[in-house]
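Z., the sequence and structure:
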Amino acid sequence: MILQIIRRTIQPGTIVLEIKGSIHSGPECAKLGQEVDKLIAERQTRVIFDMAGVTHADSAAIGAIVKCFSKLKGVNGALRIASVQPMVDYSLKLTKVDRVIDIFPSVEQAAKGFSVPDASPHPQA
């Protein structure tokens, strides 16, 4: 499946990127980075990756996600991940990304407190 990224605003200043398909090294990783670059250019720096539709993410994809996190953090923004499929969740935990980027069971839970600076997140265990 070709990677699809659908942008939607769920609350003022919070953007969800609904990602569908498989993220592999190459164009898919670049596409993810380009979407985040566009958001930063628009001063939209609170981002949630809705990964419910992601069927596979290779090591390059994990790296691209971390790079997106770093870009957002560099402009005082934040990235949260929501609705991760079990295989992708396993990869994120194996690479310890879950210790750096907060992962939530749903987009709604990821969005809670996002509009309040320095709100304490409640990531899934």
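Confidence is low (pLDDT under 50) at residues 118-125. The first helix runs from residue 27 to 41.

Let me know what you think.
H.
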